[in-house]
């Protein structure tokens, strides 16, 4: 095979970020990156990663370029190795990745990033993968990335097999079937201080509430799945806020404590609750960073955005509708 630059082992893929409405935190198997609990998310149209993978005879090592800067390859090599193994390929790869939003700030850049990588690397290597296989592959990089293989509403199963092969995401509902909007209030565009992977290790090792949280997850997922399939925003929103606050309660009780919120994050929580008290159906969620994401009907997004943008410390808001599945955008 010709692996020179401009040869036929290059592909570019786009994947969108996602926000979990029922959260994952902690691993059943750290090596295979199998989550301890299932999770349910929505894929966002406005936040995406574009990734080009080129397998190239001229490279001695894999390379990762993120937003124009060379970075340590890290778990990217895990995904590339799995693709090389399946394709019977012995070439190193250059991975060039661009986010249209701040990287590593709790906006799920690892989700869109590893989903785009899984799809681009597979296509560049010239092998076929079903969406389920792509989801398992993306999960090896970052568990939330398993969900970004799909658009709309997606569920990632925790699975129970020792090899992690039944821990994949699948579509729950098409975005068009129940359009919702998310307003992201960016309160700090800088990278987070503790990565998700390190944070979850610390939580599972030290929070006294971690086990009960894991045990309560399946019932929460069942309720969330049913509420989404019923297009019931009030129940989805109530469950999403509870899942978020339960997650942050195990973060806060980690030793040392994981406090991802800042003052503007907390002000955002109160602003969302005030809007709701005024009759507007809007609900918050927050991940491993200080950004607040507000879930609402598309027709209410402008009012939600204006309320969040007025909070001191909110640098920017971005409104998104639900986004599509990860896909190959070019192949040469
Ligand atoms: C709080 O998927 O980034 O966003 O699998 O270690 O890469 P790794 O973690 P990651 O964690 C996401 C955590 C979360 C909740 C969620 O998206 O379910």
From TrEMBL:
Q: Which InterPro entries match?
A: GHMP_kinase_C_sf (IPR036554), Mev_decarb (IPR005935), Mev_diP_decarb (IPR029765), MVD-like_N (IPR053859), Mvd1_C (IPR041431), Ribosomal_Su5_D2-typ_SF (IPR020568), Ribsml_uS5_D2-typ_fold_subgr (IPR014721)
Domain (Diphosphomevalonate decarboxylase-like N-terminal): residue spans on this chain: 15-169
Report the residue ranges that make up the Mvd1 C-terminal domain in this protein. 182-311
Give the Enzyme Commission number: 4.1.1.33
Q: Give the main EC class.
A: lyase
Q: Which UniProt keywords apply?
A: ATP-binding, Lipid biosynthesis, Lipid metabolism, Lyase, Nucleotide-binding
In the UniProt record, does the keyword Signal occur? Answer: no
Its family remark reads: Belongs to the diphosphomevalonate decarboxylase family.
Record protein name field: diphosphomevalonate decarboxylase
Where does this protein come from, organism-wise?
A: Leifsonella bigeumensis
């Amino acid at each position: 095979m010709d692996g020179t630059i401009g040869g036929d082992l290059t592909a570019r893929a786009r994947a969108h970020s996602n926000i979990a409405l029922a959260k994952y935190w902690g691993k059943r198997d750290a090596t295979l990156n199998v989550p301890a609990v299932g999770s349910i998310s929505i894929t966002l149209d406005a936040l995406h990663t574009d990734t080009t993978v080129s397998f190239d005879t001229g490279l001695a090592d894999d390379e990762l370029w993120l937003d124009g800067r060379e970075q340590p390859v890290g778990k990217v090599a895990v995904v590339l190795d799995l693709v090389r193994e399946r394709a019977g390929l012995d070439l190193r790869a250059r991975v060039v990745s661009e986010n249209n939003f701040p990287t590593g700030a709790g906006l799920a850049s690892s989700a869109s990033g590893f989903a785009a990588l899984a799809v681009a690397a597979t296509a560049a290597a010239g092998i076929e993968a079903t969406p389920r296989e792509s989801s398992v592959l993306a999960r090896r990089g970052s568990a939330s990335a398993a969900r970004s293989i799909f658009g709309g509403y997606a569920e990632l199963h925790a699975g129970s097999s020792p090899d992690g092969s039944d821990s994949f995401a699948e579509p729950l509902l098409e975005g068009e079937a129940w359009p919702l909007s998310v307003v992201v209030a960016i309160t700090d565009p800088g990278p987070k201080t503790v990565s998700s992977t390190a944070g979850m290790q610390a939580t599972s090792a030290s929070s006294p509430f971690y086990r009960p949280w894991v045990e309560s997850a399946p019932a929460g997922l069942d309720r969330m799945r049913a509420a989404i399939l019923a297009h019931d925003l009030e129940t989805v929103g109530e469950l999403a806020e509870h899942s978020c606050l339960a997650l942050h309660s195990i973060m806060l009780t980690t030793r040392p404590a994981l406090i991802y919120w800042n003052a503007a994050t907390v002000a955002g929580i109160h602003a969302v609750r005030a809007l709701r008290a005024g009759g507007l159906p809007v609900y918050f969620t927050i991940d491993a960073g200080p950004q607040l994401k507000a879930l609402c009907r598309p027709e209410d997004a402008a009012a939600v955005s204006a309320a969040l943008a007025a909070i001191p410390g909110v640098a920017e808001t971005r409104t998104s509708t639900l986004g599509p599945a990860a896909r190959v955008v070019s192949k040469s």
